[in-house]
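Quick entry between incubations.
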Amino acid sequence: MRVLAVSGSLRPESHNSQLLRAARELAPEAIEWDTYDALITIPPFHGERDDPDAPEAVQHWRDRLAAADAVLFATPEYNGSVPGVLKNAVDWASTPFPDNVLRGKPVMVVGASTGAYGAMWAQADLRRILGITGARVLDGDLAVARAHEAFDEDGRLRSASQTERLSELLGALAAESLPAAA
Amino acid sequence: MRVLAVSGSLRPESHNSQLLRAARELAPEAIEWDTYDALITIPPFHGERDDPDAPEAVQHWRDRLAAADAVLFATPEYNGSVPGVLKNAVDWASTPFPDNVLRGKPVMVVGASTGAYGAMWAQADLRRILGITGARVLDGDLAVARAHEAFDEDGRLRSASQTERLSELLGALAAESLPAAA
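Done. Structure below.
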């Protein structure tokens, strides 16, 4: 089964991209890991429900989502919500209506921030937004606070409880994506 | 005093841009009206709190906000929230931290959608987000539902109560922006 990992940050030193790399290390062997790191290429969404001539970068994004049995999002928090760049990508993925690539797709959301709350509100907003696109939003969250201190020099989470939690989430993700992969 | 009108939609036939044109017709004479329609030029926000070399389109956006005594946003709703494109622009406007151009700025949010709720949830999210940037979010909302039927051939709102409501909001906006203009 294939999991697509999507970081909502464009920063080269992104803590959320780091969180996804840590997740990859913890993922069950049955998971084939794919990392989407081309958010910056996705143009502004125009608001139309249909787009027979979607830009190439958008088609590529949709293809990667379609090829995945499940999607793991890691989101930073800007102004208490989802980065506009990530929301813009989700807006594109939510069309064409109603047969978009997220419909029925198992998705999970985690997040990291340098503040005290670990992108908790951005995660909550992203779960709600993904649910409205038709995605199947899985229970479970992980809020990595003080993210600049959360990883060791090998890129692993320092906290044993967060490591255990992330392992649990990945197990749940693998279990949920099995039916689609069968 | 100057009000900057910002539509969150890129669509040429945008109902939210139409709503702002209707607002302009109803605005008190004391208001100098400025329309920002270059959202599509704003690049993806990178998540840094400071950016001494912000792209030209971002500097232009910030300059227009800075020159306004108040800002009127009209937002569509995509997947139950603010369009990614508009959130991305607000993310840029929220930096550099802490002296961003939105801090203390009176802002008001209205919205239109072709559905039954008039972008109510996107408006609520945008008000919350703008509050977190430091903007002074004014009370008052206007949710124009079934927006494709809401305007007459002259671009005016068909509903007398919505027209009255919009006039009230503009009066409140003008009153709030007076201290800054004085």
